[in-house]
């Protein structure tokens, strides 16, 4: 068999040719803000963006910042001063400075010669524009273009929302609450810590001094060069001056944290003292990843900054943040405990460190000029969170996770009609900017950059990166600078067609919403016909005018394009598009998967599953084609195709549950997982297992237990009960499956054991595993008792707000849990609303609606019977109800009418699904083929 690989770029207008018949810990924080701003408001804000922007003729060059804090006592008050050095480039009578919630105590304006000589000019009058977050200083006589210093004294309160300069806390080994102050400034919250010019392109050097109690340590972007005692017993930490940097990257922290450090002393990891033993992996990974990036980019980190610290925070809404020289993380995204942390958590920790370290170049050395170009920061970081992790740990194959964890997930969201281009602005207000931190800025941008990288080849791509970084060092960029670097490299390489330049090629991807489906057809003469169309998840629009310049690859089974040999396009799914074939070629590919699975590359097999599923859902191919293709999975032994299949299997499972043919669907899933399931030991982990072995076992064993395969439920129950009895601890890499499904057939003591283990644990990653496991129980009494812990109940539990939300969502794992949550919300929605917020309440309701499949679940008359419940330390009287309509009726006054309507619409679609094209076809397939388990 001959396989030929062709590489080209296609620019084909829709209709030109006739076709032949036929998903970063980093983002999670921003997701919580979805739904808080009306889209119409955002559209209007985009038009008014200039009202919120600073004038271009005043440029900051340096900040000298001084802060005093008594955070060690829990006191939120702080004070400070800042000297803002300004380069005024045209005559003016006003100076604009950003400020959010700070009290300006005094101000002075000085002229400066750029050195030590300064001259006092005047104290300025000012007004505050709270809507635009400006302090507008008025100068009596217009000042000429020159250098000036604006000195401000101010005071403020440490925030409690994990934004800006905020206070958080933890409990030490003795149970005493300890306080600390930390920062999170991205995107525009530096202004809430000190007055500044808070736009990313306005880079300046920064020198910081922090006065604090000597029992605490202050850290910041740069090393400390001196610590001086004050007469009141406090000390002042003096930090070296930073390079030119965006103000949102300034960071500091005042705490009693301890640290571990590398031998070279250039890297340290900070954590609360009772978690310091969990920092060693992050330290080692940080050193390996930084070394890998230094070598790969050819621009060593040490050329820009003298050190980098990492800090693990118990309360950090951003998930992780790339502050130059001081990266911050939520604890579960940084701390690793051998024997406790799972392989999935280790993967997350490793890739997030790589993401933040990639930002030290892409985002810190070179920064997006404005938030509309955020993709230039986050796209590179998303790409290199996998590539740099892979370079540091090549045996783990992290780069092979990119397609299933990044590209395939965003192909789903970017197919919606409401999607946006990569380059895009919604305005300059807080929520308008925050709304841009989405899957387009992260996942799509990373996927498109991956496509560009593979088109250029590794050598040319790395040359392009050097040009891009060195040419814009310490500067701010837009798409133009990226295009210039690519044009310089591609000129003369014959990578693009003669009539296509780098600018047109790049902008066809970054300035247009959505992505194409490449339609490949063969003629009787053996010719390949290619056409493109914009892909929508819910419709086909053949006259959509959007055209992309598509780099594509083709793999052929033979060498002469014979009618009985398959063709495969977009090999290994390197391009950001879907591929559709004529029916004959789909059938040939399916036959190849059934007969000689490995003749098609692993990532291409994952692509075929993913494309076929979504093409069928958008009515571009017959669903029977997809289902026929999925039958090959019983021969599949690699993780990426199974992860792609996992989404399809789960979708059909959620639709079929409660339907007459649900048993047949069980048999179908049993059939395709059976051959691989019998090869797995779901309770143990071998020393030589690969990362993909672990991923595969988790996917397959989860479905085996979910399908109630007896051996799976028995093995997980036995493993859990052995830990409960003290015989043998469950290995962390199988704990998620064992705890969840073992609990379903185990005794009440197992539930009590896991709950006690949760209360005793101080490892945030382990706590989340246990929270999710406890929600897996299908015992109604246990579920209701467990839900009460989210609001305290009779037993006060050491949950933070995020964990309380996780308790509520964890029970959605079963129908019994959905019913219990519905009943719980009817009685306790006021707590959820006041403590966790309207977004959490709405998300819970929408999740319940998404799991409402039958008329009984939607409209069943309430069963309201009171029982007394005793579980361990819980004692409570409960009212049970099992219907969605009752819940929506209760919430109609507290949730927006649109959210109530959305929940009803979701349930209605679910109820109608069996009679839809998908539902009828799936039932036909299941009944026709009479599939049997292996």
UniProtKB/TrEMBL annotation:
<dbReference type="GO" id="GO:0070006">
    <property type="term" value="F:metalloaminopeptidase activity"/>
</dbReference>
<dbReference type="InterPro" id="IPR024571">
    <property type="entry name" value="ERAP1-like_C_dom"/>
</dbReference>
<keyword id="KW-0645">Protease</keyword>
<keyword id="KW-0479">Metal-binding</keyword>
<dbReference type="GO" id="GO:0005886">
    <property type="term" value="C:plasma membrane"/>
</dbReference>
<dbReference type="GO" id="GO:0006508">
    <property type="term" value="P:proteolysis"/>
</dbReference>
<dbReference type="InterPro" id="IPR001930">
    <property type="entry name" value="Peptidase_M1"/>
</dbReference>
<feature type="binding site">
    <location>
        <position position="355"/>
    </location>
    <ligand>
        <name>Zn(2+)</name>
    </ligand>
</feature>
<dbReference type="InterPro" id="IPR045357">
    <property type="entry name" value="Aminopeptidase_N-like_N"/>
</dbReference>
<keyword id="KW-0862">Zinc</keyword>
<dbReference type="GO" id="GO:0098552">
    <property type="term" value="C:side of membrane"/>
</dbReference>
<keyword id="KW-0472">Membrane</keyword>
<keyword id="KW-0336">GPI-anchor</keyword>
<dbReference type="Pfam" id="PF11838">
    <property type="entry name" value="ERAP1_C"/>
</dbReference>
<dbReference type="InterPro" id="IPR014782">
    <property type="entry name" value="Peptidase_M1_dom"/>
</dbReference>
<keyword id="KW-0031">Aminopeptidase</keyword>
<dbReference type="InterPro" id="IPR027268">
    <property type="entry name" value="Peptidase_M4/M1_CTD_sf"/>
</dbReference>
<dbReference type="Pfam" id="PF01433">
    <property type="entry name" value="Peptidase_M1"/>
</dbReference>
<dbReference type="Pfam" id="PF17900">
    <property type="entry name" value="Peptidase_M1_N"/>
</dbReference>
<feature type="binding site">
    <location>
        <position position="378"/>
    </location>
    <ligand>
        <name>Zn(2+)</name>
    </ligand>
</feature>
<dbReference type="GO" id="GO:0005615">
    <property type="term" value="C:extracellular space"/>
</dbReference>
<dbReference type="GO" id="GO:0042277">
    <property type="term" value="F:peptide binding"/>
</dbReference>
<protein>
    <recommendedName>
        <fullName>Aminopeptidase</fullName>
        <ecNumber>3.4.11.-</ecNumber>
    </recommendedName>
</protein>
<dbReference type="GO" id="GO:0008270">
    <property type="term" value="F:zinc ion binding"/>
</dbReference>
<comment type="similarity">
    <text>Belongs to the peptidase M1 family.</text>
</comment>
<dbReference type="InterPro" id="IPR042097">
    <property type="entry name" value="Aminopeptidase_N-like_N_sf"/>
</dbReference>
<feature type="binding site">
    <location>
        <position position="359"/>
    </location>
    <ligand>
        <name>Zn(2+)</name>
    </ligand>
</feature>
<feature type="site" description="Transition state stabilizer">
    <location>
        <position position="442"/>
    </location>
</feature>
<keyword id="KW-0482">Metalloprotease</keyword>
<keyword id="KW-0325">Glycoprotein</keyword>
<feature type="domain" description="Peptidase M1 membrane alanine aminopeptidase">
    <location>
        <begin position="281"/>
        <end position="509"/>
    </location>
</feature>
<keyword id="KW-0449">Lipoprotein</keyword>
<dbReference type="GO" id="GO:0005737">
    <property type="term" value="C:cytoplasm"/>
</dbReference>
<feature type="domain" description="ERAP1-like C-terminal">
    <location>
        <begin position="566"/>
        <end position="861"/>
    </location>
</feature>
<dbReference type="InterPro" id="IPR034016">
    <property type="entry name" value="M1_APN-typ"/>
</dbReference>
<feature type="domain" description="Aminopeptidase N-like N-terminal">
    <location>
        <begin position="59"/>
        <end position="249"/>
    </location>
</feature>
<dbReference type="GO" id="GO:0043171">
    <property type="term" value="P:peptide catabolic process"/>
</dbReference>
<dbReference type="InterPro" id="IPR050344">
    <property type="entry name" value="Peptidase_M1_aminopeptidases"/>
</dbReference>
<keyword id="KW-0378">Hydrolase</keyword>
<feature type="active site" description="Proton acceptor">
    <location>
        <position position="356"/>
    </location>
</feature>
């Amino acid at each position: 068999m001959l396989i030929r690989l062709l590489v080209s770029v296609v620019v084909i207008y829709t209709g030109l040719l006739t076709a032949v018949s036929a998903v970063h810990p980093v983002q999670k924080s921003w997701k919580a803000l979805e739904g808080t701003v009306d889209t119409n408001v955002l559209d209007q804000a985009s038009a008014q963006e200039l009202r919120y922007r600073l004038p271009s003729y005043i440029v900051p060059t340096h900040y000298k910042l001084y802060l005093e804090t008594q955070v060690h006592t829990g006191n939120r008050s702080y004070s400070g001063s800042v000297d803002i050095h300004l380069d005024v480039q045209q005559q003016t009578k006003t100076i604009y400075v950003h400020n959010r919630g700070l009290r300006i105590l005094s101000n002075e304006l000085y002229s400066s010669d750029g050195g030590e000589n300064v001259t006092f000019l005047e104290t300025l009058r000012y007004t505050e524009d709270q809507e635009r977050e400006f302090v507008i200083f008025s100068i009596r006589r217009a000042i000429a273009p020159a250098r000036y210093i604006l000195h401000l004294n101010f005071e403020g309160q440490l925030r409690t929302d994990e934004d800006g300069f905020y206070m958080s806390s933890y409990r030490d080994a003795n149970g005493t609450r300890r306080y600390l102050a930390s920062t999170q400034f991205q995107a525009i919250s530096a202004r809430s810590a000190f007055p500044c010019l808070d736009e990313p392109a306005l880079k300046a050097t920064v020198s910081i001094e922090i006065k604090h109690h000597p029992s605490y340590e202050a850290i910041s972007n740069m090393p400390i060069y001196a610590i001086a005692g004050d007469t009141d017993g406090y000390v002042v930490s003096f930090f070296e001056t930073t390079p030119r940097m965006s103000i949102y990257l300034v960071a500091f922290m005042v705490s009693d944290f301890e640290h571990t450090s590398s031998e070279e002393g250039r890297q340290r990891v900070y954590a609360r003292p009772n978690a310091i033993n969990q920092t060693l992996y992050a330290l080692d990974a940080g050193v390996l990843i930084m070394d890998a990036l230094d070598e790969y980019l050819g621009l060593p980190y040490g050329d820009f900054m003298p050190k980098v610290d990492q800090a693990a925070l118990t309360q950090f809404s951003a998930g992780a943040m790339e502050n130059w020289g001081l990266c911050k993380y939520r604890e579960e995204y940084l701390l690793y405990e051998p024997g406790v942390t799972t392989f999935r958590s280790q993967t997350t920790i490793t890739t997030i460190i790589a993401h933040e370290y990639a930002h030290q170049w892409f985002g810190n050395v070179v920064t997006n000029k404005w938030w509309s170009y955020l993709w230039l920061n986050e796209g590179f970081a998303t790409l290199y969170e996998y590539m740099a992790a892979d370079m540091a740990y090549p045996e783990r194959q992290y780069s092979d996770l990119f397609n299933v964890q990044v590209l395939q997930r965003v192909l789903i969201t970017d197919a919606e009609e409401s999607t946006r281009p990569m380059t895009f602005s919604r305005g300059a207000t807080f929520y308008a900017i925050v709304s841009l931190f989405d899957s387009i800025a992260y996942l799509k941008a990373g996927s498109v950059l991956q496509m560009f990288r593979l088109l250029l080849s590794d050598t040319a791509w790395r040359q392009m990166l050097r040009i891009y970084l060195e040419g814009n060092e310490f500067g701010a960029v837009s798409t133009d600078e990226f295009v210039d670097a690519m044009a310089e490299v591609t000129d003369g390489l014959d990578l693009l067609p003669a009539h296509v330049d780098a600018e047109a090629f790049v902008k066809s991807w970054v300035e247009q919403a959505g992505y194409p489906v490449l339609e490949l057809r063969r003629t009787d003469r053996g010719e390949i016909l290619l056409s493109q169309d914009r892909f929508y998840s819910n419709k086909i629009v053949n006259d959509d005018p959007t055209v992309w310049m598509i780099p594509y690859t083709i793999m052929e089974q033979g060498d002469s394009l014979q009618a009985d040999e398959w063709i495969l396009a977009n090999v290994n799914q390197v391009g950001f598009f879907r591929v559709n074939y004529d029916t004959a070629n789909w059938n040939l590919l399916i036959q190849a998967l059934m007969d000689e699975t490995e003749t098609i590359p692993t990532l291409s097999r994952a692509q075929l599953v993913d494309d076929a599923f979504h093409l069928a859902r958008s009515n571009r191919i017959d669903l029977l084609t997809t289902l026929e293709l999925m039958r090959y999975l019983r021969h599949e032994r690699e993780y990426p195709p199974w992860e792609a299949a996992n989404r399809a299997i789960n979708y059909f499972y959620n639709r079929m549950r409660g339907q007459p043919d649900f048993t047949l669907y069980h048999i179908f899933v049993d059939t395709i997982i059976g051959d691989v399931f019998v090869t797995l030991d779901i309770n143990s982990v071998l020393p030589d297992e690969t990362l993909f072995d672990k991923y595969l076992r988790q996917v397959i064993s989860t479905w085996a237990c979910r399908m109630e395969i007896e051996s799976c439920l028995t093995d997980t129950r036995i493993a859990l009960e052995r830990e409960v009895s003290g015989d043998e601890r469950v290995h962390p890499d199988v704990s998620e499956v064992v705890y969840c499904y073992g609990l379903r057939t185990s005794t009440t003591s197992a539930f009590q054991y896991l709950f006690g283990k949760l209360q005793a644990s101080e490892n945030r990653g382990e706590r989340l595993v246990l929270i999710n496991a406890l929600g897996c129980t299908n015992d109604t009494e246990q579920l209701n008792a467990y839900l009460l812990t989210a609001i305290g109940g009779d037993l006060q539990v050491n949950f933070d707000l995020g964990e309380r939300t996780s308790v509520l969502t964890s029970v959605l794992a079963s129908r019994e849990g959905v019913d219990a949550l519905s009943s719980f919300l009817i009685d306790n929605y006021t707590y959820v609303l006041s403590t966790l917020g309207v977004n959490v309440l709405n998300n819970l309701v929408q999740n319940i609606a998404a799991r409402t499949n039958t008329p009984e679940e939607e409209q069943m008359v309430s069963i309201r019977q009171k029982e007394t419940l005793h579980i361990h330390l819980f004692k409570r009287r409960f009212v049970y109800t099992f219907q969605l309509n009752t819940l929506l009726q209760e919430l109609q006054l507290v949730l927006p009418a649109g959210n109530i309507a959305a929940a009803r619409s979701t349930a209605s679609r679910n109820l109608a699904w069996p009679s839809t094209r998908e539902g009828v076809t799936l039932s036909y397939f299941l009944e026709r083929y009479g599939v049997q388990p292996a």
